Amino acid sequence: MSGGPLARQDTEPGQLIGLEHLPASEFLESLVATVERPGARTRLVHQGLQADATAHEARAVERDLIELLAWALRRLRASANTTVASPAPVQALVLLPRNSILAHVLRRAVPIAALGIPVACSAPPAMRSELGRVIDLVARSLALDGTLKLSSTDSPTSYARMPRSSMVVFTGRRSVLQRLAVGSGVEVIAATGRCSVLVGADASAVTDVLHELCALQRLGSCTRPRAGFAIDGGWTTIRALGSLEGRSISSALPGLHPSVVLSVSSEALPKGPEFVDGYRVLACGPHGESDTSVGLGRDPDFGWPGDYLI
User: Fold this and answer.
1) Is residue 155 assigned to a domain?
2) What backbone phi and psi angles, to 5 degrees, belong to 79?
3) CA atoms of 108 and 279, how far apart (whole Å)
4) Per residue in 178-212, pLDDT tens?
5) Which of 66, 103, 189, 310 is most exposed, with the fewest beta carbons within 10 Å of its own?
6) 106-121 per-position pLDDT tens digit
């Protein structure tokens, strides 16, 4: 990737679909009403989450609704300064994983549907019923009945009948992505990150956060930590923790292929870069909590720009 491992990338919306395509007014009104009333926001999250969801997941999805509104407002603001017209996909197929269905619908499907683009969502067959329930709830709650639907097929291997100028947004394993068959003229964008990576100035603090997040997040989550690094103020590795001992963060990232790099905040580590080797860096507190998920899931290999950057 040009510009070196600490190259700055764009963290404003408009990277996937041109800024002249704006969120629908009905969607905005419904989203504002949901976000501004804590009871309505909590109710949507409670109804949309799976029965075994944790309090940690519920808090994260409530934040997603707020992030969604912030994205819409940032996109409206940015659109006032653009004169470049670009076509939008005629439709989109969003392929979702089996974990965290509600969060992935809000992050990967709703922003596209909010721009007036027909979106069909698919998931592994075992999750079809759950996905249909979530789609119905979100579409009804956010005035997206006309653009957000359940896909008529759940085959992970062939979407060759999709029309030209359509888009596939895939979330999941690289091995499954490589089996997708789509027709010519169909753009495929994918978020295939496998984990989170923690960095910080204090090795013991990084280790503590790593253990805490592992306890909070379920197996199979694409943000469950897999590695940690102690770094200095120039983001040079001092020490790699666990099985990666002796490796530098830059040499390890391509193999780890994280959804996000979490930087454990401390006075000893000044605010770092927003991207390392193309992966999004988010600051987190002493318990692994971050106040934003903008850019999470960025995939330098398969083109997903990161959540809420559409």
Assistant:
1) yes
2) -65, -25
3) 17
4) 888 888 899 999 999 999 999 999 999 999 999 88
5) 66
6) 999 999 999 999 999 9
The whole model's pTM is what?
Answer: 0.92
Question: Does residue 120 share a domain with residue 162?
Answer: yes
Residue pLDDT, tens place only, 24-77: 999 999 999 999 998 999 999 999 998 778 888 898 999 999 999 999 999 999
Regarding whether 186 and 39 lie in a shared domain, the answer is: yes
Residue 202 and residue 266 in contact, taking contact as beta carbons nearer than 8 Å = yes
DSSP 8-state symbol, 163 = P
The single-letter DSSP state of residue 125 is G
Contacts 24+ apart (CB under 8 A), 64-67: 64/103, 64/106, 64/107, 64/293, 65/31, 65/34, 65/35, 65/41, 65/106, 66/35, 67/292, 67/293, 67/294, 67/307, 67/308
End-to-end CA distance of the chain: 21
The structure tokens listed for 204 are 């013991």
Same domain? 218 vs 187: no
- Residue 35 and residue 175 in one domain: yes
CATH number of the domain bearing residue 106: 3.40.605.10
Domain boundary, last residue among 191, 222, 238? 191
Cα–Cα separations (whole angstroms), residue 285 to 70, 267, 288: 22, 12, 5
Asked if 187 and 200 sit in the same domain, the reply is no
Q: Which helix (H) or strand (E) holds 95?
A: strand 92-95
Q: How far apart are CA 285 and CA 188, in angstroms?
A: 35
Specify whether 214 is located in the same domain as 261: yes
In a domain, 14, yes or no: no
What lies within 8 Å, CB to CB, of 210 at 6+ separation is 198, 225, 228, 241
Domain that holds residue 274: 196-284
Residue 211 token pair? 């253990």
Same domain, 71 and 186: yes
Q: Residue 205: how many CB atoms within 10 A of its CB?
A: 19
Side by side, the strands of the sheet bearing 225-231 are 237-240, 225-231, 196-200, 260-264, 279-284, 275-276
